[in-house]
Amino acid sequence: MAAATSLIPGLQDIVRRSDPKRRATVIRSLSTLFVQGADLFGSQHIELFDGILTGLLPQAELAARIDMAERFAALAKAPPQLVHELAHEDHIAVAGPLLRASPLLGEAVLVELARSKGQEHLLAIAEREAVSAAVSDVVVRRGERDVVRRLAGNAGAQFSQQGYAGLIKRAGDDGMLAIAVGQRHDLSAPQLNELLSKSVDLVRRRLFEQATPSRKAAITQAMQALSSESERRPVVRRDFAPAQAAILALHRADALNEGALLGFAKAHKYEETIAALAAMARIPIAMTDGLFAAIRVDSILVLGKSLDLAWPTVRALIVLRLGPNRLPPEADIETARLNFQRLVPATAQRMLAFWRTRHDAASAD
């Protein structure tokens, strides 16, 4: 830092006296000076600025550190040690801009940060213009729902076989992730087949609708192969008649209530659950079955709120739609719980009435 005194008189005194305002002014002035001349500076100049700014960093206020991170994030000739220090900060407002954009952060550093930092840092890494397979492997393994969805939708992200296997496995319980993965141009035919085999019909249709013409052809071919396989298996069709009879008996015995519904859902008795919900909500079974087939759980939340069901019952309904031995990500469950809490009963009842009217009109056509 001694060489800097010719640039800024009293620099040692500024650092030693820990004057936040003067330090912030010095940091801002140095940062502006560096950005303006970065293209002309040689390695010695960059090293000088790097030493000064890194020396000021331990005493720098949060606002000053954020300002430096934002100024240097996209610079290819930014002070390297300063960038390294800022990118390792726990405060995402400081580290975020560099994790998203700095070309000075190599693969080894990004892998280290992806392994050690939290979800906000992982999300920033997932938003980089280019993400190597080594980095994405860690993000897929450690990232929560929103992070992995963002990474899958990043055209500049690369994935290893292991990374794609992790994405496809998680996409089995996440329709939005399945659509993002299915739209990737680097997804191989076998990987597409595996993705579709783990997806529900509604996700498959949505993926096909949003696909490019070339990808539509690949999806069609994969679906034909899956159809051929399914034709060799026994076809299981849902028969709601026995369930309807059981629910009618419960109703006549004045025993059709939330406790009975919860019991059906927890036992994964799909037909009985749908028939019970249909009777309690006074809507057709076909309509109730269709609401359960949607990608999002909003329709289940509306049904639950309109019937004044408790959250444990609504949660059991959400889990039921995936089938036995399958659970949605905890982040999805928590989001659904919060949305259910916010939903106003009167609003849910109006939505249910609208769905009922629309279904009746469609049936009459």
Largest sheet: none
DSSP strand (E) fraction? under 5%
Order of helices and strands: HHHHHHHHHHHHHHHHHHHHHHH
Gap between N and C termini, in Å? Answer: 82 Å
Task: Tell me roughly what share of residues is in helical segments.
Answer: 55-70%
Q: What structural category do the secondary elements indicate?
A: mainly alpha
Instruction: Kindly report the average pLDDT value.
Output: 86
Number of E-type strands: 0
CA radius of gyration: 28 Å
Count of DSSP H/I helices: 23
The poorly predicted ranges are 1-6, 230-236
Overall geometric form: elongated
Describe the overall structure.
The chain is built from 23 helices and no strands. With 365 residues, the chain is mainly α. Among the domains are: 1-105; 241-364, no CATH class. Helix 11 (161-171) runs antiparallel to helix 12 (175-182). It starts with 10 loop residues before the first helix and ends with a helix.
Question: What is this entry, summarized?
Answer:
With 365 residues, this protein is mainly alpha-helical.
